[in-house]
UniProtKB/TrEMBL annotation:
Domain annotation Integrase catalytic: ranges: 1-66
Lineage per the UniProt record: Eukaryota, Viridiplantae, Streptophyta, Embryophyta, Tracheophyta
Species of origin: Trifolium medium
Listed name of the protein: Retrotransposable element Tf2 protein
Alphabetized InterPro entries for the sequence: Gypsy_RT_Integrase-like (IPR052160), Integrase_cat-core (IPR001584), RNaseH-like_sf (IPR012337), RNaseH_sf (IPR036397)
Record GO terms (molecular function): nucleic acid binding
GO biological process: DNA integration
Length: 89
C-alpha cells in the first residue's frame, strides 16, 4: 500500500506505469495527442507479455490459461471490399 501523493512508495506500480508509458510512446510516436486510442492496445500488450518474476503473463496468472492471440489478417476474408483493400495495402 502506498500513501497519497507519494507514488515513489509503491515501486511495483511505478514500474508498471513506466512500462505502459513506454508502450504508448512507441505506439504514438508521431501523434502523441492520440495516446488514449492506443491505451487498450498497451494494456493488452502488457497483460499478454511474459513477466520475469512469475514466468507467466498476467492473463495466465488470473485465468490459468494462455491469452488469446489476435489472428493475422488473411487477404480476401473480409465481406466488405473497401475494408479488404485497406487491410491488404
Amino acid at each position: 500500500m502506498s500513501s497519497s501523493y507519494h507514488p515513489q512508495t509503491d515501486g511495483q506500480t511505478e514500474v508498471m506505469n513506466r512500462t505502459i508509458e513506454q508502450y504508448l510512446r512507441a505506439f504514438v510516436h508521431d501523434k502523441p495527442n492520440l495516446w488514449s486510442r492506443y491505451l487498450p492496445w498497451a494494456e493488452y500488450h502488457y497483460n499478454t507479455s511474459v513477466h520475469a518474476a512469475s514466468g507467466l503473463t498476467p492473463f495466465q496468472v488470473i485465468y490459468g490459461k494462455p491469452p488469446p492471440s489476435i489472428p493475422s489478417y488473411i487477404s480476401g476474408t473480409s465481406n466488405i471490399e473497401a475494408c479488404d483493400a485497406l487491410l491488404s495495402s
